[in-house]
Task: structure prediction
Amino acid sequence: MDERDAGSVAEPETPDEELSAKPRRRGIFLLPNLFTTGALFAGFYSIVQAMNGRFEEAAIAIFVAMILDGLDGRVARLTNTQSAFGAEYDSLSDMVSFGVAPALVMYSFALKGMGKLGWIAAFVYCAGAALRLARFNTMHGVQDKRWFQGLPSPAAATLVAGLVWVMVDNHIIGLDVHWLAWALTLFAGISMVTNLRFYSGKDINLKRSVPFIVIVLIALSISLVAIDPPIVLLLLLVGYGLSGYVIWVKRRLSQRHV
Result:
């Protein structure tokens, strides 16, 4: 045996050292990932119902996914259970619930009879959602939390689903509004990949006291939505979708004035 071989001989590990050398199993936090799984199930359920021609249930399921998606992050922050696994799982769930599901629901409802124009519009939306989520993940730590860059995917998904819900609720078939559906699908898909700013609401502090009138306005808003949920929600979503363009126009006009 030469010197190199002799020098490479190591003492046998003790039982404690062997235990410490084994990789430790890392668990996942149940509570926030439970909400994420619920959102994923709602997106999958939406696709199944669209395949069965039950478009109202498919649209409502996307709204349910949006609510659950909004809760998982807040629950994780409140319970201090954020994790890299949760962030990746949330992105994959969002792609199904807010990327694939709305595109397939709208295609099955109104775009199927348009041939290539129909599935191209659905693909543009789906690709826009994927790009939007990828950009959000890479810029999450550097962008201003008060604003979203591009229309957020849950808002785009509910905008598309909201139109389907309103049409079905008013007994209007997809073929009668296929051009409106086509334009709205492209609008939502393109808006997700723009550099326009949309208010995020993340600067709202729920622990801070507010004037009494705020509670009154919240109660009035809930009553307004209860009058006709599909139409009121769609109008609110259209207003939010246009808000980024309004902010951009105001900034351009103010720059020219200066």
Q: What stands out?
A: The mean pLDDT is 85.
